[in-house]
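Data availability (excerpt). The following record was deposited with the supplementary files.
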Amino acid sequence: MANKRELKKDINYVLGDIIEAVYVWELANAQKPTKDSEAVIDEAIVTFDELIARVNDRSVENKKAHFKAISADLESKGRALIEKINKLN
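Predicted structure:
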């Protein structure tokens, strides 16, 4: 991980793309109920808030390991959200 700014950009881009994918799914499937898709969006927003709060935590001693853990969490939570989008159909 290069630095804090890059990690914040990655979080923003990944979760933003996931939310955008849900909106595209909602437009393509306008006749279907959207409670499940809204739940995915809500989970993405909660994940964003959670990860940004962890990035901004200044009480961490080993920042490199801390940022690597956040990056790994972003990847795993992002994959889980993508799986939920794929199951919407």
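Summary of structural features: The CA atoms of residues 16 and 44 lie 8 Å apart.
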